[in-house]
Amino acid sequence: MLTCFQEAVTTLVASPSAPNFGYVNCDDEPLLCGAWIAPTASIYYFLLPEPKPNQSPASTPIYWVPLNLTTVTADDIVKISQHTTYLQTGSRWDSALHPIDGWVAQYGLLEPLAYFLHYLAKIPSWMFTIGISLFGRQLM
Predict the structure, then answer these.
(1) Lowest-confidence segment of 5-14, 78-87, 96-105 by average pLDDT
(2) Of 52, 98, 111, 115, whose CB count within 10 A is highest?
(3) Is-above-0.85 flag for pTM?
(4) CB atoms inside a 10 Å sphere around CB 66
(5) Nearest 5°: CA angle at 123, between 121 and 128?
(6) Would you kindly state where each structural domain of the chain is located, as residue ranges?
(7) In whole angstroms, what is the distance from residue 75 CA to residue 11 CA?
(8) SS3 state at 137
(9) Residue 39 predicted with pLDDT over 80
């Protein structure tokens, strides 16, 4: 999968309108992936607005394109960027959890949410089962 991304990046860098690229490994950066609620094998396409003097900052649209790990090719990734298929295949991220413009980020709650989700994922599933069982018996 990583070689597929590398092939796509080398193809896109050669084009005159090459976008800027970044790669996040969620095993190395679990808090960043938790803050963005990023699933594996997905492309985030940020459309950064031009900063204008004496104006309030414009919103930053983010498009999220999920990828199938078994069938994706380098050509598919190139098409997402060059032919702007992210507008048709991706979904625009407009919610409270938007990492730049959402109210969770505006109030500084994105990092605590990332820590919460990170440690929640560390809890084994059998512990939830025991907890629900004990809670249900307490109700009865």
Answers:
(1) 78-87
(2) 98
(3) no
(4) 13
(5) 115
(6) 2-139
(7) 9
(8) helix
(9) no
What is the reported pLDDT for 90?
Answer: 67
Interacting residues of 57 by C-beta distance below 8 A, sequence separation 6+: 49, 51
What is the rounded CA–CA span in Å between residue 122 and residue 27? Answer: 13
CA distance 26 to 28: 5
At 92, the amino acid letter reads R
Cα distance between residue 20 and residue 81, in whole Å: 11
User: What phi, psi does 11 have (nearest 5°)?
Assistant: -70, -45
Report whether 71 contacts 64 (CB < 8 A).
no
Q: Cα 45 from chain centroid? A: 9
Cα(80)–Cα(3) distance, rounded to whole angstroms? 17
